[in-house]
Amino acid sequence: MAFEDLNTEKGVKKLNSFLEDKSYISGYTLSQADLDTYSQLPKPPAANFPHALRWYNHIKSFSSDELKQSGFTAASPLQTGTTTTSPQSSKPAAADDDDDVDLFASDEEEDAEAARVREERLKAYAEKKSKKPELIAKSSIVLDVKPWDDETDMKELEKATRSIEMDGLIWGASKLVPVGYGINKLQIMSVVEDAKVSVDELVEKIQEFEDYVQSVDIAAFNKI
């Protein structure tokens, strides 16, 4: 879905309404549509647009390296930032330009100080090449939280579920889905860092709210 005029309050309001029951612009995982929409925002959504702001902060959490390794075309301008430079300052600094490191300086012309500087540059160059970005593995999970009966207070059930806080856990959109006989189940989205959050532990924590929760099922599980 394309959004227009995201530099206006009207456009951000439309985005906020769209994300009221969704974690992503398209589907249950990050897509190019999220990055394209994110890149159109001139600034973070205001606090009175909580759904758009929640989505914005989640998309912002992905690093450029994660996006490239996942096959996306580019990070958004909001994440990378833009800088205006003068003609004199547009040339990269010598320390960051591999072409400016003279790897074949004449031994006859370099003195002890020049040799030391050259060795330091070679060492810094090698360290920069050896560093590899660490990919943070994440998963998008949709949980079905089932109540005991049609008299269960579903608002309190959702409140109890969202009260669970774990390092690496982000709650997303939710909705009530009819299952029959006047009973609704809570379907809620979440994004977890695989190294920090155990899905089994998360399910157990939800099931501890025995006054409201009868059982918890995993409706969808996708690696990001």
From TrEMBL:
Which keywords accompany this UniProt record?
Answer: Elongation factor, Protein biosynthesis
Q: Which residues form the Translation elongation factor EF1B beta/delta subunit guanine nucleotide exchange domain?
A: 138-224
Any GO CC annotation of this UniProt entry: eukaryotic translation elongation factor 1 complex
Q: Which Pfam families match?
A: EF-1_beta_acid, EF1_GNE
CDD domains xref list = EF1B, GST_C_eEF1b_like
Which residue intervals define the domain Elongation factor 1 beta central acidic region eukaryote in the entry? 103-129
> Region annotation Disordered: residue ranges?
70-99
Q: Which SMART domains match?
A: EF-1_beta_acid (SM01182), EF1_GNE (SM00888)
A GO molecular-function descriptor: guanyl-nucleotide exchange factor activity
Q: TM spans, by residue?
A: none
Composition bias (Low complexity) maps to 73-93
Highest taxon of the lineage: Eukaryota
Q: Which InterPro entries match?
A: eEF-1beta-like_sf, EF-1_beta_acid_region_euk, EF1B_bsu/dsu, EF1B_bsu/dsu_GNE, Glutathione-S-Trfase_C_sf, Transl_elong_EF1B/ribsomal_bS6, Transl_elong_EF1B_B/D_CS
To which protein family does this belong? Belongs to the EF-1-beta/EF-1-delta family.
Return the protein name: Elongation factor 1-beta
Organism of origin is: Exocentrus adspersus
- Taxonomy-wise, where does this protein's organism fall, top ranks first? Eukaryota, Metazoa, Ecdysozoa, Arthropoda, Hexapoda
